[in-house]
Amino acid sequence: MSFASIDPGTGELVARFAAHDDAEVERRLAAAAAAASSWGRRPVAERARRLAAAAERLEAGKGELAAIMTGEMGKLLRAAVAEVEKCAWVCRYYAEHAERFLAPEAVAADWPEARVRFDPLGVVLAVMPWNFPFWQVFRFAAPALAAGNVGLLKHASNVPRSALAIERVFAEAGLPAGCFQTLLVESARVEALIADPRVAAVTLTGSEGAGRSVGGAAGRAIKKCVLELGGSDPFVVLPSADLERAVATAVEARTINNGQSCIAAKRFIVHRQVYEEFERAFVARLGALVVGDPRDPATEVGPLATPTILEDLAGQVERSLAAGGRLLIGGRRLDRPGNFYEPTAIAEPPPGSPAFEEELFGPVATLLRARDLDHAIELANATPFGLGAAIWTGDRREAERAEVELEAGSVFVNAMVASDPRLPFGGIKRSGFGRELARAGMLEFVNVKSVVYG
User: Fold this and answer.
1) Are 228 and 259 in contact (CB under 8 A)?
2) How do the domains of the chain map onto residue ranges?
3) Is 91 tagged catalytic?
4) To 5 degrees, how large is the angle CA 179–CA 185–CA 188?
5) Given 31, 177, 235, 267, which is the most exposed site by the fewest CB atoms within 10 A?
6) Catalytic one among 83, 91, 262, 436?
7) For the segment 9-24, what is each residue's pLDDT rounded down to a tens digit?
8) Which top CATH class is 233-420?
């Protein structure tokens, strides 16, 4: 078994890495367990200094690290640079706030002294995806490490260079041996890792199927689990909205990361009074996007990460059109080396079709017409997912109603859904459970311990 790093823009093999055998996995598990026994007892300020050093290492090496991401999963190079910078931000955020987030809390109770303290759980296994190969890892690792946990990373099989580079960043930042390690293992070995008594908890970002598997294994082992799964985020546009700004943001929100983002807007639900105008402007902007080499500064949409993702997306589009969806633009794989798919828009696919029901992971948008605000909210919630949602309106009452009624972990008004270290991030329904980022994310992997003195 080996792991290949293949350039999605050309299809060329860049590097190949041997999988870790049983002996190497055992060595790394033992090292993680040993590190957990000491790292969590170090002062929070010391752990914070190591995170600050990781931020410095990220910023110093951002060109090299960004090039790894672009060459491994096809992210636009400028977006890859921004991703590394965001990882430095999250490290600094927890370096600055960890002591306050973890400070024991005094409680007024029926004893002379009572308080709540927040102690690390130990070894946390992270099963991470390829689409944001650095950010997804750091948004778990920064709070977990600051809280005194140690990390074992099982990254997606198509981004081994990213996985190993992240391990180097933490080592070069001065974290003790064993505090953060990569495991080059196939997915079939994850269940055994979760069951290992040295692993205290698990977090996964990935597909619904992966979430069922990992969540089930964690349940059987009775271990804490956080799942961030897929999304089919609605983007609601009402007549009172700034339509020009909404259209520009809509196109960006659908094509960010070449359309491969859980929180990318995917279903554009537009009030009938402005639907025709929105459709014309949206299609015009989508058709003007430059598709090409992700290293070229002029490129706006790069390749999909793997041939399988390309095939899956093309199949979803074909089935949606066969079911009655109307093709507005695109709908073709590009005849060139690499995994390229045209920016595409499908109007009013029927319920039951992939474009209505499923997550489309690529630059394909679904446009739906809403009769009124009630119908828009109904369509927005007509999905098994509940990760993010956006609403565009100039009416505060409409926004406040949507804030309550939209079924999602995040609601953004007149803005594009994004993850931010200062805000809890996660979903409901089949988008998973638990939260990352902010204080809530840090407290997912601590023992909230009550202490009483009589």
Assistant:
1) no
2) 2-229+431-453, 233-420
3) no
4) 125
5) 177
6) 262
7) 999 999 999 999 999 9
8) alpha beta
